Amino acid sequence: MGRRTELALVDALYEGIDDGGAALLVEGAPGVGKTALVDELERRARARGMGVLRTAGTLAESTVPYAGLHLLLHPLRDRFAELPRPQREALDVAFGAREGSPPTLFLVGLATLTLLSDAAKDRPLLVVAEDLHWLDPISRSALQMAARRLASDPVLVVMTTRGGDHALASDGVRHLHLGPLPFIDANAVLDARPDAPRGATRRALLELADGNPLALVELTASDVGLTEAGLVPLPDRLELAFAGRFADLPEPARLAVLAVALDTDAAADDATRVAARALGRAVGPGWLDAALDAGLLRRDEGSVPFRHPLVRSAVTSASTTAERTAVLRALLDVRGESPERTVWWRAELAGGPDAALADELDVLADRSLAAGDATQAVRALRRSATLTADPGVRAVRLVRAAEAAAGSGATDVAVALLDRVETDTADPAVRARVAWLRELLPVAASALARGDLGPALRAIDDLGRAGETDRALDALLRLASIAWDHSTEAESGRPLVDAARLLDLDADDPRALFLAAVTEPVARGDEIVARIRALPDVDDADAQRDWQLGYALNKCGEIEPSAAYLQRAVDGLRRSGDVALLPHALLGLSWIDYLRGRFAEARAQVEDCAAIAVDVDDPGLLAAARAVLAWFDALDGSPPDLDAIAGGSALGAQRLAARELRATLTLADGMAALVSGRPRDAERAFLRVADPDDAAHTLVWRVVSLPDLVDAAVLSGHRREASSHVEEVARLAPTWHAPVLDAALRFARLALVEDAGLETAARALDRDPLAMPFFQARARLLVGRRLRRTHRPDEARRHLHLALEAFTAFPAPRWAERCLDELRATGERLPDAAPSGRHVLTPQELRVCVLAVEGLRNREIAERLFLSPRTVGAHLYAAFTKLGITSRDQLAGALRRE
């Protein structure tokens, strides 16, 4: 009743499901009718011949890893064997079918995505996940990841929650708020009751229920006087009503119902025996009838579940301490055959320190972390700490709990735990761990979030001095990896130098080379590159090593060697599902692809990073990815929108203050102005990056943006000023022989060459192209423009056509338009040519096509790109249509021609 609008929305999604799926998050208060709505959606789906998969979170299994996912995917178990091996093994380990290391979240999520996509090949699919707030975190995250990536598959994912799930109600997931029933429909619900109230009682119930269907069905005349409507939130009113009914039960019935609340697996007979043990006398089966008549329980096959989750909460909160103690002791006697089952009962009964029980909970935390269940680990470690008498051991357990909470995204819990640790111990190693974790937490109050590396570096130094060398090294590597989008310092590497030297790594250790490149990329660039080139080849794939060496080469201004390492790193990190390092590897590879003139591929890498940031709910990382995307938008003349990039997040806004991101956005402003014909505005922006006193300055960015500054300055009539900037940058050349520096200087000098030397400079472009294709194409454009203006149209056209070909291939449409304008100015008549296939393909379509040309099948491409196989097929179909081909065999030729 009263859900016509909501049902019409879903019916529309059903109608278009063959053209693509959707994900819908239904949010509403307890009792508002979420289950009734999805029951009706399931009925309609089955009537349409759709398949249905369903799972639900429960309080009892909210800390059981993979519980919700196992229930959802169990009907598809016959398809597990068809999964790619890494995905199949991940699910086998997750579901206990084989031994192995805990699978990463992304592998489990990718396996879920593949299974749902494959199942939808037979017929469209409805996937229902109820009570996300009680779904175990791993199942919830895996389903969230899959739901965002099923847009091309005939799958409708419907999830329900009580609210506050901001991460899910975002990119790729629609949001539907389920509010109270309208007055007319609320009256209809009351009319449908066998004891339909009348008169003043009816009016009071309508006011008290406030349109909540559960309240309309459950509340009675005796409940009306329990609370005053409007003064107490509706869920609390319902809880009070259920608590009142529980309190009115006879003592045997209360104890039996409490046993069901404390032991979710208890059947009616189990509850009878527990109540009897707690009372010390026999209890008959009549307690169940009393609980059923009170509307607290309902009959089910072999079990006695509560009528609604609110009932369990009401029962546990309304029970007395004496009742809980008696029932817990009775549960241990009657149902205590398994230590794993009873550990929480024993922990609740423990009245003081208990070393053995604390150790048992510590072991449980280790097992939970190994299984990827940080929530259970935090709970176990917190209780273990409470039962620990030794302050030092207690502090270690609390800091471990804080680390686990931070890893699961429970920032508030982590902060509270760290506060407890600091008052509990003076141990230097523990306090250093606390200080480091405080800096890492995604909170706006941390110094690191404000761009100050100092406290984090002091914590790392304290770890090293306390003998925690491995932990200090891991922390330093982590800090070095994220310094680029955090630090507001001009040379963020300098503060890291001393910390790196204290760790005394071998000079040829990839970690040492990585740290050296982050800290001193220009001063030691030649040395670092030489050491990396001298390293022996390694047969075993090591994504961490590849990332460290690739990023080191990247920072030192190398291009092709860095690309090889970073591509291997990205591939390896995708296979392993390492989402902590993968976003940074993607951004590094994106930069290198930009330098190589692979703009579509570069943009796609950043879009992947942004998608992962959404998956892991990291607004700072998302803002950094959006800032890089703004640079690519600027190539086509779109200036950056800072509010959109920050996304309304305080952390996102703070992240944009990082010096490298300031430089990125400042250069984006300049590039947008340059391609839009505003060279003076562009010059002002580029000068900020060149100015050591400006907050947007970094040395490497000054080098990379030198061609932009010179281009804008020459167009603005400031050749002399441009020449002085070239001379300053050229002072780096004797000791830093990076291809990036060479390309920047050669372009800048060509832009400033006198007309008499133009022909010689032009021949040099033919003989020895610049290392950066974008600069090479712009140099051709510059030469062509100047040759045209000196009345040499034939020579000008040759350079302009070569530039046009390159800009079209990147693609860089606005730069291609500038070439076309220059060609027309030479008198050349240009036909209305069809756009390049590479240009009309989206970045994702192009990436899928490139992998298909390499010989990968759809399922392998899907695994590589975190997509469903059907989505890969949809991208290929769209690409074939745009390229005018009909088969995979024609793809390589079509891309080559374009």
Describe the protein.
This protein is mainly alpha-helical and 898 residues long. Among the domains are: 4-177, P-loop containing nucleotide triphosphate hydrolases (Rossmann fold), CATH 3.40.50.300; 183-232, no CATH class; 246-335, no CATH class; 757-832; 843-897, Arc Repressor Mutant, subunit A. 63% of the residues lie in helices and 3% in strands. Strands 2-3-4-1-5 form a five-stranded parallel beta sheet, with helices on both faces. Helix 11 crosses helix 12 (268-279), helix 11 (251-262) crosses helix 13 and helix 41 packs antiparallel against helix 42. It starts with a helix and ends with a helix.
Task: Write a compact overview of the structure shown.
This protein is mainly alpha-helical and 898 residues long.
